[in-house]
């Protein structure tokens, strides 16, 4: 290896780089003394060119590195008068590129370039452009003030590490299956989108920071891929990550403090987000729209001034072991036939609704909790909800609100300490509940032509009516226990129907079941230990009771009033503190194969004011006094051998 010295001094034998290149052989080093060298050179030999330092040694002109040639530049200031064109291999170490005279500083076509400890600045358009399957490696460099983009890649590959890129329209622009691997970089203060990924390109980042962009942090389109590992993104003016017909993979990332959204998915885009923290955005933390796909696992979504996650236009999302917290609007909003699957998640401290569903959307949530919302935990409008093994508690609104043709299925859940009914349904809602426990609150409120089906549930300790149905609503309960309410067990109002099978209703402070302008079918059930009546049937109501047991009420166990009727069959009434049956005001009761026994109050059976009671094959006993009382055109019809005075 020979060293060729170049100096602009009058005493130097070699004053130009071009002269040195004519003497250089493969592997030689050309040492440039301090000074400015203005010349255009096409390098033709593999050599190294070194300056004294990159401030005092300046080369200016048109430079070309052709194919099959490797040139190493060290400690130089390089001022291209046109783009520095590379088809071979160029290595730059500790160099300063000043591009004020050219649109593109470095242009590489089917070549290779390495940059280490370099500064590339002030290009009119692009700092480094790679085309036609070129390769580049950049380490510890600064890109500053390059007009449109610091890096432009088409069908090429680049690795950049521990570098800073700032003050351009874009930081990196990838096209035509280009790839950038980014590690530990600082990318900030660009006037447009900082990273643009197009046409099946890939941007792969690890541990970089993207901040203070006036556009997006990353914009990907055209079946491109963005991979983030431990990246930190903050303070973008537009959505920090915008994916359109492209894929996002993010793990161990933090995305926060954006002016709009953290992540926007559009037009069949997809995102896989694992162990990330996303928060403090003004519109939404994550949005998925136009049939996009979203998967979030083991992450935290928090503190958005708008929505936590929004799913629109047939998008599909899966959430696993993720926390939603402190969102001003809905923590999860699902609309326009979108679908969500949720497991092991926590929704807490929302300023409005936990989950809001509408317009044909559907959601399945399992092994999750929703607590501390200032409104309803889950609202369903024209959608379908399935909740499995969940806990809904301490919400200022309902646990679940189902309205306008909503369909809700609940199984294995616990609901308690909600300020409004744990489940409310109206406007043709359909609600099915299985093996669920409700307590400490008003449990179920179902109205307006809705339906309720419940089985194997436990409902107790409500502050208000435990179950209220109204306005042409139908409810069917099987093997349920309703107990220890501070008011009524059931209220059935305004042309509604309640059916009880194998149920137990007990220990309510007010009448356990109240029918008003409605109907009841009760079979194989128990009604016991009430502090008032067992059953009130009033205002043109009807009840059919079969194979049931009614006992230990302080007031008349069955009270029938205002043109109402009751059919008793194979039923037993015992141990009432007052009458077992009281019928008044043009009402009627028919009992067959029943037992009516009372040792505490005379007149087991009473009819007053144009009422009628018929007892067939029914045993009536009273050791205390008389068993029948009627007045004011009322009639009690019975067979004497069935009566024991």
UniProtKB/TrEMBL annotation:
<dbReference type="Pfam" id="PF13229">
    <property type="entry name" value="Beta_helix"/>
</dbReference>
<dbReference type="InterPro" id="IPR012334">
    <property type="entry name" value="Pectin_lyas_fold"/>
</dbReference>
<feature type="domain" description="Right handed beta helix">
    <location>
        <begin position="196"/>
        <end position="327"/>
    </location>
</feature>
<dbReference type="InterPro" id="IPR011050">
    <property type="entry name" value="Pectin_lyase_fold/virulence"/>
</dbReference>
<dbReference type="InterPro" id="IPR039448">
    <property type="entry name" value="Beta_helix"/>
</dbReference>
<protein>
    <recommendedName>
        <fullName>Right handed beta helix domain-containing protein</fullName>
    </recommendedName>
</protein>
<keyword id="KW-0677">Repeat</keyword>
<feature type="domain" description="Right handed beta helix">
    <location>
        <begin position="385"/>
        <end position="509"/>
    </location>
</feature>
<feature type="domain" description="Right handed beta helix">
    <location>
        <begin position="513"/>
        <end position="637"/>
    </location>
</feature>
<dbReference type="GO" id="GO:0006511">
    <property type="term" value="P:ubiquitin-dependent protein catabolic process"/>
</dbReference>
<dbReference type="InterPro" id="IPR051550">
    <property type="entry name" value="SCF-Subunits/Alg-Epimerases"/>
</dbReference>
């Amino acid at each position: 290896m020979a060293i060729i010295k170049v100096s602009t001094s009058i005493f130097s034998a070699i004053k130009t780089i071009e002269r040195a290149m004519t003497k250089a052989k493969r592997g030689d080093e050309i040492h440039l003394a301090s000074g400015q060298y203005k010349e255009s050179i096409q390098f033709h030999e593999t050599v190294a060119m070194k300056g004294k330092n990159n401030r005092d040694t300046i080369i200016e002109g048109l430079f070309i590195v052709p194919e099959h040639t490797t040139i190493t530049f060290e400690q130089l200031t390089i001022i291209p008068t046109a783009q520095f064109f590379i088809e071979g291999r160029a290595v730059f170490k500790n160099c300063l590129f000043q591009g004020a005279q050219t649109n593109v500083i470095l242009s590489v076509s089917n070549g290779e370039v390495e940059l280490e400890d370099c500064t590339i600045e002030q290009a009119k358009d692009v700092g480094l452009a790679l085309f036609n399957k070129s390769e580049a490696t950049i380490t510890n460099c600064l890109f500053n003030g390059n007009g449109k983009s610091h890096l432009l890649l088409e069908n090429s590959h680049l690795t950049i590490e521990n570098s800073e890129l700032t003050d351009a329209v874009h930081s990196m622009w990838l096209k035509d299956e280009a790839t950038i691997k980014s590690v530990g970089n600082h990318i900030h203060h660009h006037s447009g989108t900082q990273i643009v990924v197009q046409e099946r390109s890939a941007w792969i980042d690890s541990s970089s920071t993207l901040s203070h962009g006036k556009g997006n942090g990353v914009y990907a389109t055209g079946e491109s891929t963005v991979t983030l590992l431990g990246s930190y993104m903050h303070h973008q003016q537009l959505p920090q990550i915008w994916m359109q017909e492209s894929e996002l993979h993010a793990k161990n990332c933090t995305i926060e403090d954006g002016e709009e959204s953290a992540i926007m998915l559009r037009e069949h885009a997809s995102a896989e987000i694992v162990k990330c923290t996303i928060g403090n955005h003004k519109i939404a933390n994550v949005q998925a729209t136009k049939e996009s796909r979203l998967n979030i696992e083991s992450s935290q979504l928090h503190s958005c001034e708008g929505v936590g996650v929004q799913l629109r236009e047939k998008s599909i999302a899966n959430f696993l072991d993720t926390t939603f917290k402190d969102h001003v609007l809905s923590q999860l909003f699902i609309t326009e036939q979108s679908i969500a699957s949720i497991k092991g998640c926590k929704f807490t401290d929302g300023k409005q609704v936990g989950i809001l569903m509408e317009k044909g959307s559907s959601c399945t949530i399992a092994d999750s909790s929703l607590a501390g919302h200032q409104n309803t935990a889950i609202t369903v409008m024209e959608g379908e909800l399935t909740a499995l093994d969940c806990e809904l508690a301490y919400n200022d609104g309902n646990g679940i609100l189902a309205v306008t043709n909503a369909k809700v299925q609940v199984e294995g859940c616990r609901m308690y300490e909600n300020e409004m009914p744990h489940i409310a349904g109206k406007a043709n809602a359909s609600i099915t509940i299985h093996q669920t426990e409700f307590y400490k609150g008003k449990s179920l409120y179902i109205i307006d032509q809705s339906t309720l089906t419940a089985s194997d549930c436990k409902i107790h300790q409500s502050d208000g009516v435990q179950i209220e149905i109204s306005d042409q609503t139908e409810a069917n309960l099987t093997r349920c226990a309703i107990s220890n309410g501070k008011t009524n067990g059931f209220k059935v109002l305004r042309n509604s129907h309640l059916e009880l099978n194998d149920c137990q209703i007990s220990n309510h402070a007010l009448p356990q079941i109240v029918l008003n302008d409605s109907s009841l079918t009760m079979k194989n059930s128990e009604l016991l230990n009430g502090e008032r009546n067992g059953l009130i049937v009033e205002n043109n109501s009807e009840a059919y009771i079969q194979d049931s047991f009614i006992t230990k009420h302080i007031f008349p166990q069955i009270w029938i009033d205002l043109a109402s009727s009751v059919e008793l069959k194979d039923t037993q009434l015992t141990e009432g503190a007052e009458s077992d049956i009281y019928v008044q005001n043009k009402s009627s009761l028919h009992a067959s194969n029943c037992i009516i026994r009372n040792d505490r109050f005379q007149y087991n059976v009473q009819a007053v004011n144009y009422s009628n009671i018929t007892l067939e094959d029914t045993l009536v006993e009273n050791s205390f006094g008389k068993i029948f009382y009627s007045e004011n055109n009322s009639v009690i019809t019975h067979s004497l051998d069935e009566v024991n005075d």
